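Justification of computing resources. Each target in the renewal requires a structure prediction run like the one illustrated here; the chain below, 232 residues long, is used simply to show the kind of job we budget for.
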Amino acid sequence: VCDGGNLDCGSGLLLIIRKAVNDVPPGGILEIRSTEISVREDLPAWCRMTKNPYLGWAPDPAHNKYFVRKGGEVQPETAAADQQARDYRWQCRVRWAEGMQCTVYCRNHSWAVGQPASFDVEDAAPSAVEYVLGALGACLAMGFQIHASRRGIQVEALEIALSGQIDNIFVFLGVEQEGHSGFRTISGTLYVQADAEEEVLADIWQHTLAVSPVTSTLARPVTMDIALRQVF
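Resulting structure tokens:
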């Protein structure tokens, strides 16, 4: 059984299905569960492309069930798609706008970012370090919801409150050298309303923290190679 929760085929479900199909012997049947209605349209097309026969679907009170027969060995297209996911590079461009503000561009999105050392109550744009906290919180919120749905748990409401303390912001401003200008500590609380015992939710939360891309990025050393190139 492959439980995709509320993921659709474009947001990670196919990656999960491909891994599950690999563990099924040729001719075996994989049951796929999802609450996302669009899977009914998208999964048959994927099955045709990967030569894994689509056997149909059946409704269930908690989710829809889809049945796929493994057609043989892993198709080259499937292996290539897995490798593409492993090798994918996330990208963005940042352009200084004016004064103390930049604009970030990635895919079809753009947003304004203010200076890291702003302590005003109101500002024209969130600071760069606030975006770090926001990215962490959003990654954890979406991750928790995804992992809960894959266990059949309905999340009714969810909110994460985060705060962080910079080790020494004066290092960034160039007036002190002791310490560093990164976060020293980040703390917070997840508030969640869901139809499950607190012990189960706590287990999902610990799993979410362990596999979150943003948490892992902040908690581990990252190799950085950011060069300068003068243009005329």
